Amino acid sequence: VVVVFSPTHLQLSPCEQPRIGDYRLVKTLGKGTFAKVMLARHIVTDKEVAIKIIDKRHLKPQVLEKMYREVRILKMLDHPHILKLYEALDCEKALCLVLEYASGGGVLDCLAKKGRLQEEEARSIFRQIVSAVQYCHQKQVAHRDLKAENLLLDAQMNIKLADFGLIPA
Question: For the Protein kinase domain, which residue ranges apply (predicted)?
Answer without folding.
Answer: 23-169
